[in-house]
Design brief:
The protein has twelve helices and no strands. The radius of gyration is 20 Å and the shape is globular. The chain is an all-alpha fold and 292 residues long.
Length: 292
């Protein structure tokens, strides 16, 4: 295997764009303490993909649209149950996530067993992800979603910034908080579903959360956090793809999990850096007090 292959640039571009958009979108989920949103969408999307396939849809866009609809409905249902019951939101989301994922696995098993042409459409790709199989058409879709997500974030920046830090004050100013939350949820669903083909259901949440968590350790400003999260995500996609390709010369290494490990590495490095800064400030303050 050569150091550089013709399809490596395509995979690298797709994963970098995907992880960057996930980092930008995930920053708002982390600040609003709703990191479980991405997990719910990713697990529920499997049932939507399988349901769309059973309805006769075979194109990748149609399957992803089915996953997006299922993820959005699951999040909306969780919100309604939280509002009309005494259950906490994370408990409702966790329960619905488990039910939707179980339904998705059952439908996937049924398709693989009873649908004649199921072998020509590897739906397990949406479960485990196959980043190394990304093609130009996939990258074009990811690029379009990335550009759309950046434009939407820029358009609603003041409103979403206020929503992330003080939703009660935003409501007091007369802003349509429910509509803003709906728009942010829809953007999260879109980014998560687009990434299923690359890293799969289980790992997509890590790309949504890890870059944002790493970025949060370096700054207290939302704008800088979003930029750093996008940068950490893009670097994770590039480094993970290169590392998987290089190690693939000796052992079989999946690209998606390698990208997630790189993103987790940024979190570890950022947490250590934050700890070092905190201890350094404490030591300097102690020295100054002793000197005084």
């Amino acid at each position: 295997m050569e150091w550089w292959s013709p399809g490596l640039g395509t995979v690298m571009a797709g994963t970098a764009l995907l992880a960057a958009s996930a980092g930008v979108t995930g920053s708002f989920a982390v600040l609003r303490r709703q990191s479980l949103q991405g997990d719910v969408v990713a697990h529920a999307a499997l049932a939507g993909v399988a349901a769309a396939f059973l309805l006769g849809i075979r194109g990748p866009l149609g399957l992803l649209l089915g996953g997006a609809v299922a993820g959005w409905i699951t999040l909306a249902l969780a919100s309604r149950l939280h509002q009309h019951t005494r259950l906490p939101l994370d408990a409702v989301q966790g329960g619905l996530m488990a039910v939707a994922f179980g339904l998705g696995l059952a439908l996937l098993k049924h398709i693989l067993t009873h649908v004649p042409d199921a072998g020509r459409h590897p739906l397990d790709r949406y479960l485990l992800g196959q980043a190394a199989q990304l093609r130009d058409a996939d990258v074009q879709i990811i690029a379009a979603v990335t550009i759309l997500s950046v434009l939407v974030v820029a358009a609603f920046w003041p409103q979403w910034k206020l929503l992330a830090f003080d939703p009660e004050y935003a409501a007091g100013l007369g802003l349509p908080v429910r509509l803003l939350e709906l728009g942010l949820t829809t953007l999260t669903v879109t980014v998560v579903v687009i990434g299923l083909k690359a890293v799969g259901v289980v790992l997509m949440t890590a790309l949504l959360v890890a870059p944002a968590v790493a970025a949060r350790q370096w700054t207290d400003r939302l704008g800088m956090m979003v930029l750093l999260a996008g940068l950490f995500g893009a670097l994770s996609g590039i480094l993970g793809t290169l590392l998987a390709h290089y190690l693939g010369r000796h052992v079989s290494v999946p690209t998606g999990p390698t990208i997630v490990l790189c993103a987790s590495g940024w979190v570890v490095v950022s947490l250590l850096a934050a700890w070092v800064r905190q201890e350094s400030r404490r030591w300097i303050a102690t020295r100054r007090s002793h000197h005084a």
